[in-house]
């Protein structure tokens, strides 16, 4: 059975005091050819019983590892968006402001840990003293360096496990401009809310012009009765970073009564592999 080390799940954690080394950054988003082949084979229909049992155990271990590492990260807001926008792009600056306002409001900023919008949101969180910033990375065949604005980060081999973690620990979701991956994450969240699998947490689309064609398509869904008007009403569409964070804060505090009392919060247990509890 592959060990945690074999799966790349035992790597040291980057922190504000000990940022990722160049060696660690060079492995960000990378995986071996054998891992890539095994992951691709897993999705190519029925395989041998032994192969599928091994993959099932690996997936279970990855799930447990994620649960234990992220259990104490505090109230999170996940920011989705493209990895392709450079630092000079207006969308990058917008996402950085969002990360800053989220940190000021007391939220932990969670992203996919990569460049572009993800980096911008994490960077904004670190602009704030004691701002908290974490990333959930996906291993990919091509190299993808970690952004340098993460307090903590964790690697996942499977997209669905990573997406589960990005959703499970968040009280709100902010969707900045992005492509296929961003749309996948957005519609996963909306489907979970629509079907009652996820509480009615706020979902905000940032960038009216960018998302305008998509909103028109959603209105078409409403007119064709493939979704209900209330499903579309769940979306908050804004341009101003301060406004989006204010709306999220109002909903999470008032509607869901979000409150983290240090006196009653459970403590990590090292023998369960738990960690990353923030000290206040």
Describe what you observe in this structure.
By secondary structure, the chain is of the alpha/beta class. The chain has one domain (26-255): Rossmann fold (3-Layer(aba) Sandwich), CATH 3.40.50.450. 44% of the residues lie in helices and 12% in strands. The chain contains ten helices and seven strands. The chain has a seven-stranded parallel sheet, sandwiched between helices. α7 (180-194) links the parallel β5 (170-175) and β6. The chain is globular. Mean pLDDT is 82; it is low at 1-20, 22-32 and 260-264.
What's the helix-strand series?
A: HHHEHEHEEHEHEHHEH
Return Rg in Å: 19 Å
Q: Give helix % range.
A: 40-55%
Q: Please tally the β strands and state the result.
A: 7
Mean pLDDT: 82
Instruction: Enumerate how many helices there are, as a single number.
Output: 10
Structural class: alpha/beta
CATH architecture identity? 3-Layer(aba) Sandwich
Q: According to CATH, what is the class? A: Alpha Beta
Beta-strand percentage range? 5-15%
- Main-sheet strand order equals 4-3-2-1-5-6-7
Main sheet characteristics: 7 strands, parallel
* Global geometry: globular
Spans with pLDDT under 50 lasting ≥5 residues?
1-20, 22-32, 260-264
Structural domain count: 1
CATH topology: Rossmann fold
Task: Give the termini distance in whole angstroms.
Answer: 39 Å
């Amino acid at each position: 059975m592959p060990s945690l080390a074999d799966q790349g799940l035992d790597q040291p954690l980057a922190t504000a005091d000990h940022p990722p080394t160049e060696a660690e950054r060079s492995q960000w988003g990378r995986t071996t050819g054998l891992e890539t082949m095994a992951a691709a084979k897993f999705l190519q229909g029925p395989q041998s019983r032994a192969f599928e049992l091994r993959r099932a155990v690996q997936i279970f271990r990855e799930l447990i590892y994620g649960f234990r590492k992220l259990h104490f990260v505090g109230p999170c807001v996940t920011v989705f968006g493209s990895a392709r926008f450079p630092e000079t792009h207006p969308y990058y600056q917008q996402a950085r402001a969002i990360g800053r306002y989220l940190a000021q409001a007391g939220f932990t900023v969670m992203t996919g840990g990569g460049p572009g919008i993800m980096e911008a949101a994490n960077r904004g969180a670190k602009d704030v003293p004691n701002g908290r910033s974490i990333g959930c990375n996906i291993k990919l065949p091509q190299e993808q360096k970690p952004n340098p604005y993460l307090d903590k980060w964790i690697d996942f081999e499977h997209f669905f496990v990573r997406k589960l973690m990005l959703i499970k620990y968040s009280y709100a979701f902010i969707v900045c401009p992005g492509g296929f991956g961003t749309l996948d994450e957005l519609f996963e969240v909306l489907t979970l809310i629509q079907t009652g699998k996820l509480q009615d947490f706020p979902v905000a689309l940032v960038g009216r012009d960018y998302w305008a064609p998509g909103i028109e398509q959603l209105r078409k869904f409403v007119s064709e009765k493939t979704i209900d008007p209330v499903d579309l009403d769940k979306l908050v569409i804004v341009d101003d970073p301060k406004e989006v964070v204010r709306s999220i804060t109002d909903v999470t505090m008032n509607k869901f009564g979000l409150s983290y009392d240090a006196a009653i919060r459970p403590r990590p247990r090292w023998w369960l592999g738990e960690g990353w509890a923030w000290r206040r």
